[in-house]
Input
Amino acid sequence: MPRGFKCRRVCALPENREFTPQNSCKGTVILTIEELETVRLCDLEGLDQDEASSSMNVSRATFQRTLYEARRKIAEALCNGKAIKIEGGNYELAQHPCGCRRRCSNCRFENQNSKCSE
Output
């Protein structure tokens, strides 16, 4: 019997969810909310994968798979002139600071009940 799917914890929803190339668009790449969060934590905030996976409440292996998939999608969009659309996924909004050794500069914590979004 497969294990139940665990929602990934994200700090906040992105304000901008669509990015298009300057020249003609050759399609769209869909980046999930949790994929964007992995890139934000590692590449923008500079957290190591152990800290970042703890912040998202997932295993390091799951975090790494999600990060690599997000980076692949971003590279595909940038190299092939595709738009990036951020939507969907299985995530919950964090209700309190994640407990990292330092607070992320872009964290905005919601004061509402976290529910798994699909």
Notes: The mean pLDDT is 82. The CA atoms of residues 9 and 56 lie 4 Å apart.
